[in-house]
Design brief:
homodimer, mainly alpha, two-stranded antiparallel ribbon, 73% helix
Chain lengths: 326, 326
C-alpha cells in the first residue's frame, strides 16, 4: 500500500498545480513558505484523481511507469501467485484504496496550513471549496469523459468537449491559483476580486494546457511524453481535433475515421493516416488557435496585479501551456 | 451520480456512528445540536467506505437494495443499452466516483462545525484525525480482509482476525465517540483522558458489534438483515467462528469445511451442515463469549462520566451491540 500511495509522486511530473499556487501566493504579495503544504496538497489531489481515473480508463502506464492498478496486478501475479482474473481484481482494489488514502492525506496537508500561521477560517474555506466545488467538477468531468467516449462522435460538439476539459482539468488549476491568492491575502473569501481574477487566469490556462495535451497525444514523442502516441486515436478520445475534423471531412473520410477511432486493434498505418487526415482538414491548426486564444484571454486577468517576479513567473507558466512538448 | 451518492443514505441503516457521537457529546456535558454535522459526517464516511468495499468485495446488495456498482451496471444495461462487460465497467466507475464525492462531502460536513460555534482548532484536529489515522486504519483493515480471504484458513489465527475487525470497524466507532466528546468538551486534544476513555469504550463495542455481525451472518434472518444468510460461508469470510472451528475440528470435518468455505457454488444443504458444525464444535458459543467480554471491558471505560441520560444511552447502545438481531 505504501508503494502504491507514493509511486506517482516519486516519478517526475510537471508539478503545474503547486507551481501556479506558489506563484499566485507570491504575486499577491504573500509569503510562499506559508503556502507549501497547500502546494503539496493540490499535487496530491491531482494524484489521487489520476490513480482512480487510470483504473476507470484502463490506462496501464502513467509518468513512464505502470499505473497503480497495473502495478498491483503485477505484484499479485509475481509475489502472491494469483491467477489472471484475481490479479486484475487485486490491482483494482489497491488502486481504489490507495486513491482513497491519498484523498485523505490531501485534506490533512491543507489542515496543516493552520500550523504555518494561515488563519483557521481561510484553511476551512479552502478545504470546503476543494472537497465540494472542486471535487464535484473534477469528477463530473471524468464522468462526462466516460460518457462521451461512448457517444457517437457526430453527436458531440466542440462546446461539450471544452466544457468537459474545463471541469476535468480547469477547475483544479483554477482552485490552485485561488488558493495561493487566498493564502497570500489571508482571506477565506472566494469571491474576492483578486482571487476571482487569478482563478480565471488559471482556468483559461488549464483549457489551453488540455488542448495542447490533445495535440501532443496526436503529434508528440512517445519517449518524452511517457505514454504511447496514437493511444488517443485507438481509445477514441473525444477531442476538439476530432470534432473539428468530423465537421469538415468528406463522407468517405468520416467512414475511415469511424473505423479507426476507438478501435484498439487499429494498425499503425491506419493511425498514421488518421493523424494526417486531422492535419489536412485543418483540425490541428484549429486546436492550436483555440489554445492560443485561451492564453490570450488568460493574460489580461493578471492586469490588477503589481509587477513582481512572481507575476513574471505566472506569465511564463501561461506561455509554457502552449509551448511545451512534454 | 446524484442517485448513486444518495442511495445508501436513503435506505434504513442502524446509524450506530451518529448515535454514539451524539451520546458521547451529551455524556461529557456538551450541546448535541452543535455536533449534528459531525454525526452526519461519520455516517457519510462509513457510507463511502461501504460503496468502495462493496465494489472490491463484489457484493451486489446493501441495506436491502442493490449496491452502487450493481445499480450502475443495471442502469447501463437498461438505459444506456451497453453490453455486459461494458456495463460492469460502468457500474465500477460510478461506484468509485460516487465514493470519492462522498468522501469529499464528509470533510465538508466536519468543516461546517465551525459555523455552529465549534472552535476552528477542534474542527481541524477532527478533520486531520479522520483523514489520516482513521482512514489508514479502515483501509488497512479492508486490505487485510482482502488478503486474509486469500490466505488458507489454517494459517490464520484469531488474533489476526480480531486485529482486522479493530481496524475495519472499531477505529471509526472509536473516532465517532472521541469526536462527540471533543466537540462537547471543546478540545482538539485526542489524548485528553475523557476523550481517550470514551474512544476505548466505543472501540470495544465495535469489536463486539462485528463479532455479533459474524454470528448473524451465520444464524440470522435474511429478511431482517437485508443480505443473504450463508453468504459469509460461500464467500469464505474469515471470522473468529471459522478460526475456532478449524482449531477443534477433526481432519474429516476440516476437509468438509475446506470444501464449503469460499465455494460460491456450495449447495444449501452443505452450507447448513457447515453452520451445524460450527455450532457443535462450540465456535458459536466461543464467539458469543468473546463479544460479551468486549462489552464487559467497554462499560468500565465510562466510569469517569457523571450520571446522565446520555450516559444511559451509551450503556444501552453498548448492550445493543450483542443483543441485536439486525
Amino acid at each position: 500500500m505504501r508503494r502504491a500511495v507514493y509511486a506517482y509522486l516519486e516519478r517526475s511530473g510537471k508539478r503545474l498545480r503547486p507551481a501556479v499556487l506558489l506563484f499566485s501566493c507570491g504575486a499577491v504579495g504573500g509569503d510562499e513558505a506559508k503556502a507549501i503544504p497547500a502546494a503539496a496538497g493540490v499535487e496530491l489531489f491531482h494524484t489521487w484523481t489520476l490513480v482512480h481515473d487510470d483504473l476507470i480508463d484502463h490506462d496501464d502506464t502513467r509518468r513512464g511507469g505502470p499505473s497503480i492498478h497495473a502495478m498491483g496486478r503485477g505484484l499479485a501475479e509475481t509475489e502472491l501467485g494469483l491467477g489472471s482474473e484475481q490479479a486484475v481484481d487485486y490491482g483494482g482494489t489497491l488502486s481504489i484504496l490507495a486513491g482513497d488514502v491519498q484523498q485523505g492525506w490531501t485534506v490533512c496537508l491543507f489542515a496543516e496550513l493552520a500550523s504555518r500561521g494561515v488563519p483557521a477560517e481561510v484553511v476551512l474555506s479552502l478545504i470546503t471549496r476543494l472537497e465540494s466545488h472542486v471535487i464535484n467538477a473534477v469528477i463530473g468531468g471524468e464522468l462526462l469523459d466516460v460518457q462521451y467516449s461512448r457517444t457517437p462522435i457526430d453527436r458531440l460538439d466542440e462546446a461539450a468537449v471544452l466544457e468537459m476539459l474545463r471541469l476535468k482539468t480547469g477547475s483544479l488549476l483554477e482552485f490552485a491559483a485561488m488558493a495561493g491568492a487566498m493564502i497570500g491575502l489571508g482571506t477565506g473569501d472566494v469571491t474576492h476580486p483578486t482571487v476571482e481574477a487569478i482563478g480565471r487566469f488559471a482556468l483559461h490556462c488549464g483549457t489551453a494546457f488540455q488542448l495542447q495535451d490533445d495535440l501532443l497525444g496526436l503529434l508528440g514523442d512517445e519517449r518524452t511524453l511517457g505514454k504511447p502516441v496514437g493511444s488517443d486515436i485507438r481509445e477514441g478520445k473525444r477531442t476538439t481535433l476530432i470534432c473539428y475534423a468530423f465537421g469538415r471531412a468528406t463522407p468517405v473520410q468520416r467512414r475511415f475515421l469511424s473505423g479507426v477511432l476507438g478501435n484498439p486493434r487499429a494498425g499503425d498505418a491506419d493511425v498514421a493516416k488518421a493523424v494526417d487526415l486531422l492535419e489536412s482538414v485543418g483540425a490541428v491548426r484549429h486546436t492550436r488557435d483555440l489554445a492560443k486564444g485561451h492564453i490570450d484571454q488568460a493574460i489580461p486577468c493578471l492586469e490588477r496585479l503589481a509587477a513582481s517576479e512572481s507575476k513574471e513567473l505566472l506569465l511564463a507558466w501561461a506561455e509554457f501551456m502552449i509551448r511545451r512538448q512534454v
